[in-house]
Write a structure and sequence with these properties.
The chain has 372 residues and is of the alpha+beta class. Helix content is 28%, strand content 28%. The protein has a 4-stranded mixed β-sheet with strand order 1-2-5-4, with helices on one face. The longest helix is centred in the last third of the chain and has 18 residues. Belongs to the RNA 3'-terminal cyclase family. Type 2 subfamily. Part of the small subunit (SSU) processome, composed of more than 70 proteins and the RNA chaperone small nucleolar RNA (snoRNA) U3. Interacts with BMS1. It is found in: Nucleus, Nucleolus.
Length: 372
């Protein structure tokens, strides 16, 4: 594609730029990556992300200067197939998986990715969270089928890692437009309390404290405990909780917390973790919308790439990350969203302000997928 490239400054929103570049086929040049820093240039986890992109594409050209402060990326074709990647333990697998979720439906061959590293940490969305919210969201856009799955084979907590997940995704020719405007009331809450290399009792303590708060609101709560032993438990001790609230219309809203990594700051009590995570979930429910704040950008991307028809999604307040994401959509795909703020009435008890996002898809069709 002989389209003109785009130039950016700085290391922020690094993944967004490379993902958009790969999907749109536009070259991208990012300069001044931490150029004022004592330790300038790309971090190891970003270099690892570039290597992952290189594995799933065919014919990408990547040039990085000596100090790593300038990156030039010319995207190739999304090839897919079977990929194995050791993610850098500075960031969790969720960091890499979020980008793969955006690219996977548009590959030439259906993707089977085995990612190794940290499965759960307190910075990025954990693997459990993506499994319970991002996958059902993608199903609404028509990305589903036999081979659409995310399996946690081994857990690995920060800082040591040692976890492993397998993500499989079928390819799609087109994405169908959606109308997600009414989330409906919350009907049930599900969750996973996990613990590795600590007493299995920790998970039960988390569950009890989370239920103590959530049972005041609705009875249908089930939190699984997941205690992995031996080789499947990774290299570092830790525990955490992922909670997902499902609404009547099949939207999923989630929250999660992980214990502080070994040797980094004050240890956290499982009771406090359970309580705080339950409060975070209530906070997300208050923000509301059909998509929770961690998946806003995925929903907006799939709307943009939909067929040339109107898509509508009701979101809670937009996160700063999402706002930057919208700017990138405008840069790469020239799509602008219509944004309407809906203030709930005083007596409605519908939570915070909502934003109704409307756009017409670009009619993106998967050029990589061969005709059978």
């Amino acid at each position: 594609m002989a389209s003109q490239g785009l130039a950016y400054d700085g290391c922020n929103f690094f993944r967004q730029r490379l993902v958009f570049s790969t999907l749109s086929g536009k070259r991208v040049k990012i300069k001044n990556i931490r150029s004022k820093d004592n330790d300038p240039g790309l971090r190891d986890f970003e270099a690892s992300f570039i290597r992952l992109l290189d594995k799933v594409t065919n014919g990408s050209r990547i040039e990085i200067n000596q100090t790593g402060t300038v990156l030039f990326y010319q995207p190739g074709l999304l090839f897919g197939g079977t990929v194995e990647h050791d993610c850098n333990p500075q960031r969790s697998i969720g960091y890499y998986l979020e980008a793969l979720l955006m690219l996977a439906p548009f590959m030439k061959n259906s993707l089977k990715a085995t990612l190794r590293g940290v499965t759960n940490d307190s910075v990025d969305p954990t693997v459990d969270l993506l499994k319970s919210t991002a996958l059902p969201l993608m199903k609404k856009f028509g990305i589903d089928g036999e081979g659409f799955d995310l399996k946690v084979v081994k857990r690995g907590m920060a800082p040591g890692g040692g976890g492993e997940v397998v993500f499989t995704c079928p390819v799609r020719r087109t994405i169908r437009p959606v109308q997600l405007t009414d989330p409906g009331k919350i009907k049930r809450i599900r969750g996973v309390a996990y613990s590795v290399r600590v007493s299995p009792q920790m998970a039960n303590r988390i569950v009890d404290s989370a239920r103590a708060i959530l049972n005041q609101f609705l009875p249908d709560i089930y939190i699984y405990t997941d205690h992995m032993k031996g080789a499947n438990s990774g290299k570092s001790p830790g525990f955490g909780l992922t909670l997902v609230a499902e609404t009547l219309n099949g939207s999923f809203i989630s929250a999660e917390m992980s214990s502080t990594p070994q040797g980094q700051g004050d240890p956290v009590l499982p009771e406090d973790l359970g309580r705080n995570c339950a409060k975070l979930l209530l906070e997300e429910v208050h923000r509301g919308g059909c998509v929770d704040s961690s998946n806003q950008s995925l929903a907006l991307l799939l709307m943009t790439l939909g067929q040339q028809d109107v898509s509508k999604v009701l979101l809670g307040p937009l996160s700063p990350y999402t706002i930057e994401f919208l700017r990138h959509i405008r840069d790469f795909f020239q799509i602008m969203f219509k944004i309407e703020v809906q203030k709930p009435l005083e007596d409605e008890r519908k939570g915070g302000d909502k934003v109704l996002m409307t756009c017409v898809g670009v009619g993106y069709s998967n050029i990589n997928k061969g005709l059978k």
